[in-house]
Predict the 3D structure of the following.
Amino acid sequence: MADAAEGGAMRRGRNETEEERADRMWQELIQEVRVAQMGVQILFGFLLTVVFTEKYAKLSDTDQTIYLVTVVLGACATGALIGPVSLHRLVSGRRVKPQAVQLASRLTLLGLVLLLATTTASLLLILRVATHNGFVPYLVAGVVGWYLLCWFVLPLWTRRRHTSR
């Protein structure tokens, strides 16, 4: 049962202090980051091995450029998604958890955008090498559209539709 708030309106949400809310949000954020970190680290690890294969030397200049951009994007995504862990370690005990949660949340969102770019570039490179076909950009665009829908459009739609004002 919700408590009555000012003006007789029904109160929604939790009854928690700013510190309790920051603790809860931090725990939720870290669980989310663990999932994204694992994905980007596995992808980045595989990307790092490509340059040491015989096939790499046979790639066209364009494909080598796509590869290099993909590796840099993967490195940046890894940095952004590991950033919240370092942030927490360096500010732990300094009574700045609400601010740390906000910054870590922004780093995580940036990491997801960079992961999207890394995945897109990886898919583009793989399909270019595997098929040499003109439909590759359209297929990649379709997958990117799917990622955008799953990762950003549906969450933002849900937030807008179900968040009370």
About this structure: The radius of gyration is 21 Å. The mean pLDDT is 91. The longest helix spans residues 97-131.
